Amino acid sequence: MTDEQAPSPVDPRRHWEDVYARKAVDQVSWYRAHLETSLRFVDQAQLSPDAAIIDVGAGASTFVDDLLGRGFKAPTVLDLSSRALELAKARLGERAAGVRWLVGDITTVELPAAAYDFWHDRAVFHFLTDPAHRAAYLEQVRHALKPGGRVVVGAFSPEGPKQCSGLEVAQYSEGGLHAVFGPGFERLGCVRETHQTPTGSAQEFLYCECRLRP
Fold it and tell me: Is the pTM of this model over 0.90?
């Protein structure tokens, strides 16, 4: 393939803005009415209502709705797509004022240091197929999470898809995902989930929880 024939790199922001422009929120493959597995991790952590929680790559998910319903104050919601966040705000109505909304790329966005007690990521990390992007993501976690804070990452398992939304993804085993995070994180647990897409397909997810070592 010549240089002239080489495909143009995907602009992630444009890609996700286009996805949310073309599809209804409940028709994207990752849609789930409630993120039950993620919420179990939250409940098990026994966080106080004042705990600082960040949902990374939230899109228009209802995770923030359920956090507010559990009494958490001012959760932070971050996504590349401003359109996705506007959809979430519209759904929440007046309750949206109790949320901190951030539009940005998790590998480059400016986050406060040692600010968060709980970091949640369902299906962002597996899109980071470039080692440099994974390294930047992990540096963000180390920077923004409080010592002893928890991080929950949901990614495709080895039995999961190799592509999502037309993009290549990485697949992770339990040991493989924890190995990426490294010895600075204490492994707390992993669970598998079979996600049913709106079209009826089954996708195998792996969720792992770690604690940032002091």
Answer: yes
Whether residue 20 is contained in a domain is answered as no
CA 56/CA 111 separation, integer angstroms: 11
Q: Which residue has the tokens 């106080």?
A: 48
In-domain check, residue 77:
yes
Amino acid identity of residue 80, one-letter, is: L
Domain of residue 103, CATH code: 3.40.50.150
Domain that includes residue 151, residue range: 31-212
pLDDT band with cut points at 50, 70 and 90 for residue 5:
very low
Residue 86 falls inside a structural domain: yes
In a domain, 143, yes or no: yes
Residues 6+ apart with CB under 8 A from 174: 190, 206, 208
Distance CA 54, CA 156 (A): 21
The total number of structural domains that make up the chain: 1
Q: What sign results for the dihedral spanned by CA atoms 77, 169, 129, 119?
A: positive
CA dihedral 42, 45, 121, 71 (to 10 degrees): 40
Residue 4 has pLDDT above 80, yes or no: no
Name 148's Cβ contacts closer than 8 Å, sequence gap at least 6: 211, 212, 213, 214
Q: What would the pLDDT profile of 21-53 be if each residue is shown by its tens digit?
A: 898 999 898 899 999 999 999 999 999 999 999
